[in-house]
Automatic annotation (TrEMBL):
<dbReference type="InterPro" id="IPR019851">
    <property type="entry name" value="CRISPR-assoc_Cas1_ECOLI"/>
</dbReference>
<comment type="similarity">
    <text>Belongs to the CRISPR-associated endonuclease Cas1 family.</text>
</comment>
<keyword id="KW-0255">Endonuclease</keyword>
<keyword id="KW-0238">DNA-binding</keyword>
<keyword id="KW-0479">Metal-binding</keyword>
<dbReference type="Pfam" id="PF01867">
    <property type="entry name" value="Cas_Cas1"/>
</dbReference>
<feature type="binding site">
    <location>
        <position position="165"/>
    </location>
    <ligand>
        <name>Mn(2+)</name>
    </ligand>
</feature>
<feature type="region of interest" description="Disordered">
    <location>
        <begin position="294"/>
        <end position="334"/>
    </location>
</feature>
<comment type="subunit">
    <text>Homodimer, forms a heterotetramer with a Cas2 homodimer.</text>
</comment>
<dbReference type="InterPro" id="IPR033641">
    <property type="entry name" value="Cas1_I-E"/>
</dbReference>
<dbReference type="GO" id="GO:0043571">
    <property type="term" value="P:maintenance of CRISPR repeat elements"/>
</dbReference>
<dbReference type="GO" id="GO:0003677">
    <property type="term" value="F:DNA binding"/>
</dbReference>
<feature type="compositionally biased region" description="Acidic residues">
    <location>
        <begin position="302"/>
        <end position="311"/>
    </location>
</feature>
<comment type="function">
    <text>CRISPR (clustered regularly interspaced short palindromic repeat), is an adaptive immune system that provides protection against mobile genetic elements (viruses, transposable elements and conjugative plasmids). CRISPR clusters contain spacers, sequences complementary to antecedent mobile elements, and target invading nucleic acids. CRISPR clusters are transcribed and processed into CRISPR RNA (crRNA). Acts as a dsDNA endonuclease. Involved in the integration of spacer DNA into the CRISPR cassette.</text>
</comment>
<dbReference type="InterPro" id="IPR050646">
    <property type="entry name" value="Cas1"/>
</dbReference>
<keyword id="KW-0540">Nuclease</keyword>
<dbReference type="InterPro" id="IPR042206">
    <property type="entry name" value="CRISPR-assoc_Cas1_C"/>
</dbReference>
């Protein structure tokens, strides 16, 4: 699945034979994907076997590492990384989101969007976002999701929920600071003073960026827009921040405090975060949570069902979507 070409004998005595492009049914579902891969100071290119990262060091010379493109949800390209067009095309065919990030995965500057995606969930998102009543209901549901079942006060306004969420996060910071005996903690994110920040803030920023990458990958794999947020707005990753906030208290915040004495908090945060994702089963949770939030009254799709490839539909204000790729002219012209 990771290769686009292969060398094999044919009936004419040898030569190259191109493998067929992967179909929707061949591709792994996003809920089955691995987490993410962060790369920096490497050259990513495509050869006859697959996509590989070429690493050159003074001590070990040049080494080649092949990447499991069909199983990666997203790849974060840090500074010093170059990628060829064939390699980028292979990532796109396998539905892997490619993010261009700053040092250590901090800040996301750009991201690819896989093609051939259904618009079903984008349409659910656009309808919920464009209607103020539904947008308020979705934003409220997101806050209640963070509190846990039955923990949000009944009838609370959005402003009250924002305040309660702020108190909850502050209390979590205080609890973890006491547990790890680090004194008073204050959350700070300032790229201009990055090197002077304490290990907890460095680890939290690095882990959050990895979380944003995974959430971004899941959102675009569903065909949704990262820009149409319900709690956040005014940024191309507003919906990414919305969804990522659902998991920070469980994933990134405790991890960051556990690295308070680390001499390399950023790299350790990325490794520890990646190692814990399989146990946490983050990808299936993101997919299920996004679908439930955007269409709470719609039946959820069967997680074991393989998606079918479909042609583009045509919109009709009376009947709804009708099949595309069909000549709709009358059979008999009067």
């Amino acid at each position: 699945m990771t290769s686009t070409t292969t060398t094999a004998p044919d009936h004419n005595g040898g030569g190259r034979r191109r493998l067929a492009a992967p179909t929707v049914a061949m591709l792994p579902r996003v809920v089955d994907s691995l987490s993410f891969l962060y790369l920096d100071i490497v050259r990513v290119h495509q050869d006859d076997t697959g996509v590989c990262a070429e690493i050159t060091t003074q001590r070990r010379g040049s080494e080649t590492v092949y990447l499991p493109t069909a199983s990666l949800a997203c790849v974060l390209l840090g500074p010093g990384t170059s990628i060829t067009a064939p390699a980028l095309a292979t990532f796109a065919r396998h539905g892997t989101t490619v993010l261009v990030t700053g040092m250590g995965g901090v800040r996301c500057y750009a991201a690819t969007v896989p093609g051939s995606l259904t618009t079903t969930w984008l349409e659910h998102q656009a309808r919920a976002w464009a209607d103020d009543t539904r947008r308020l209901a979705t934003a409220t549901a997101m806050y209640k999701h963070r509190f846990g079942p039955g923990q949000a006060p009944p009838g609370a306004t959005l402003q009250q929920l924002r305040g309660l969420e702020g108190q909850r996060v502050r209390a979590l910071y205080q609890l973890l600071a006491r547990q790890h005996r680090i004194g008073r903690f204050r959350r700070a994110y300032d790229p201009d003073t990055w090197d002077t920040q304490d290990p907890v803030n460095l680890a939290l920023s690095a882990a959050n960026t990895c979380l944003y990458g995974i959430v971004h990958a899941a959102i675009v794999a569903l065909g949704c827009s990262p820009a149409l947020g319900f709690v956040h707005s005014g940024n191309q990753q507003a919906f990414v921040y919305d969804v990522a906030d659902l998991y920070k208290a469980e994933l990134t915040i405790p991890l960051a405090f556990s690295l308070n004495a680390s001499t390399q908090p950023e790299s350790e945060a990325r490794r520890s975060f990646r190692d814990g994702l399989r146990l946490f089963r983050l990808m299936p949770r993101i997919v299920q949570d996004v679908q439930t939030l955007l269409a709470p009254d719609s039946p959820q799709p069967d997680p074991d069902e393989t998606p079918d490839e479909q042609l583009v539909d045509l919109w009709d204000p009376v009947t709804g979507p009708i099949p595309g790729g069909t000549n709709h002219a009358p059979d008999h012209t009067p």
